[in-house]
Design brief:
Layout lengths: L7 E5 L8 H7 L3 E5 L6 H4 L5 E4 L6 H6 L5 E3 L8 H11 L4 E5 L7 H16 L3 E5 L4 E5 L2 E5 L6 E6 L3 E9 L3 E6 L9 E11 L4 E6 L6
Parallel strand pairs: 1-2, 1-5, 2-3, 3-4, 5-6
Antiparallel strand pairs: 6-7, 7-13, 8-12, 9-12, 9-13, 10-11, 10-12
Protein name: Thiamine diphosphokinase
EC number: 2.7.6.2
GO molecular function, one term: ATP binding
Amino acid sequence: MICSSMSKFLILLGGDLTVTPRLKQQIAGARVLAADSGMRHAAGLGVVPELWLGDFDSTDAALADQYAHVERQVFPVAKNMTDGELALHEAYERGATEVILAGAFGGERTDHTFLHLSMAVAQAHKGRKIFLSSGHEEATPLLYGKTEFDLPEDTLFSILGFETLTGLSIFGAEWPLDAVTVPFGSSLTLSNRVKETLTVTLETGTAILVASPVSALI
C-alpha cells in the first residue's frame, strides 16, 4: 500500500470524457487510479496512474502496450464488483478523503452510469467527499443540510431525487424554491439555471445535483 499525506484521488472510468480547463483545475494534485479502459483518458488529462486495475476485458492491445510500465491489479471477469467499484475501494484503502470519478457518464452502459451516481451517494452517506465528471457534466451528492456550488452563471442544472425530498430550498437560481416537498419521480427540479452563487438546502431525502457548466460558455 502506498501511503501519502495527499488525500485527493482521481479515478479514470470508461465513460465519456471531455478534457476542459475546469476539469484539469479540479483534478490538480490528485493521485490517480485507472479502471480498465478508463486508462484511455490518462493522456488527455496529462496524468499517469499509480495503479491500473480491472479485468481488462475492454482494454485493447495498443493501450496495454502504451501503459505497460504502470502497476496492474488483474481481476477475473466473473466477479462481484465492477472495475470502477474496485478502484473506488482501492482509493479508500490508500487513504482517500476526496474522490473524483472522471468518465463517470455516457458510453454504452446506462447501468454503469446509474451505478456511479448511486455509488457516489452511498459514499457521501458515509461522510466522504465525492464528485463525478465527464468534463461536460458534473454531479455532486446532496444530503441533509446546506451545499454551496461553484458554478458559472447560466449553468444548466437538475436535482435528481433518489426518494421523496422534503424541505428543499434552491437559492441563486432562475427558478428558486423555498422549503418544498418534491415527490419521488417528480420533474420539478429538472432544467434550472444558475444566476448567482447557487445554494441548495435539504431537510430529508437523498439526491444528486447534475450540472453542465460548459453549457454556460456556449
